[in-house]
Design goal:
Number of strands of chain A: 12
Radius of gyration of chain A: 13 Å
Largest sheet of chain B: 7 strands, mixed
Strand content of chain A: over 45%
Largest interface: A-B, 26 and 32 residues
Distance between the termini of chain A: 41 Å
Shape of chain B: globular
Structural class of chain B: mainly beta
Order of helices and strands of chain B: EEEEEEEEEEE
Low-confidence stretches of chain A: none
Shape of chain A: globular
Number of strands of chain B: 11
Helix content of chain A: under 10%
Largest sheet of chain A: 6 strands, mixed
Strand content of chain B: over 45%
Low-confidence stretches of chain B: none
Oligomer: heterodimer
Order of helices and strands of chain A: EEEEEEEEEEEE
């Protein structure tokens, strides 16, 4: 079945450091890929998405490129801020069930001043 | 525009009881889905509704059920609660119709934290 694997956390960084959170997936067909973010006490918010190979999603300084050849969708940011501290989830949708997303286990990011 | 509203925010039940959770989607959204979030299993899909019809169901026992009303509000019910049902239950809504893929932007509520004692 479809699955998403993302790196274990927590990831601890100093402010202005470079961020990479790895995400790889297994899916049949051509899934859409997403990154969601969850701040403490809140629900998930869509951060960015990509719907086909080589697409780059970007938002708020975060970027991720849909790499079909390596089945990856790694999240990057050039300079993190304390306010970026949250849990980040990689997810895929195979299109067979419109709202049926398969999520990774989440990676907690802690950014210190 | 109000976001996705889930009630109650916290709930404490004992084993064997049943519980009903409520979700009001963003106004105009007709698709609603439910997810269970636990530290061990992460986020798992429960069900998806569109126009009062269940379109998809995850791999959960029959004790988990749901429904959607004509105003798009949704409820999920868990009967005969077990300790393992303790979780954060998240509801998400979307404005897009079923079978439209490629732009699945879900809006999540803050969830209902269920504790089973």
């Amino acid at each position: 079945g479809n699955s998403v694997t993302q790196m274990e956390g927590p990831v601890t960084l100093s402010e202005e450091a470079f961020l990479t959170i790895n995400c790889t997936y297994t899916a049949t067909g051509y899934p859409s890929l997403f990154w969601y973010v969850q701040y403490p006490g809140e629900g998930l918010q869509l951060l960015l998405k990509a719907t086909k190979a080589d697409d780059k999603g970007s938002n708020k300084g975060f970027e991720a490129t849909y790499r079909k050849e390596t089945t990856s969708f790694h999240l990057e940011k050039g300079s993190v801020q304390v306010s970026d501290s949250a849990v980040y989830f990689c997810a895929l949708s195979d299109g067979t069930g419109f709202q049926k997303l398969v999520f990774g286990t989440g990676t907690r990011l802690l950014v210190s001043p | 525009k109000a976001g996705v509203t889930q009630t109650p925010r916290y709930l404490i039940k004992t084993r064997g009881q049943q519980v009903t959770l409520s979700c009001s989607p963003i106004s105009g959204h007709r698709s609603v889905s439910w997810y269970q979030q636990t530290p061990g299993q992460g986020l798992q899909f429960l069900f998806e509704y569109f126009s009062e019809t269940q379109r998809n169901k995850g791999n959960f026992p029959g004790r988990f059920s749901g429904r959607q009303f004509s105003n798009s509000r949704s409820e999920m019910n868990v009967s005969t609660l077990e300790l393992g049902d303790s979780a954060l239950y998240l509801c998400a809504s979307s404005s897009l119709s079923y079978r439209v893929r490629g732009d699945e932007k879900l809006f999540f509520g803050s969830g209902t934290q269920l504790s089973v004692l």
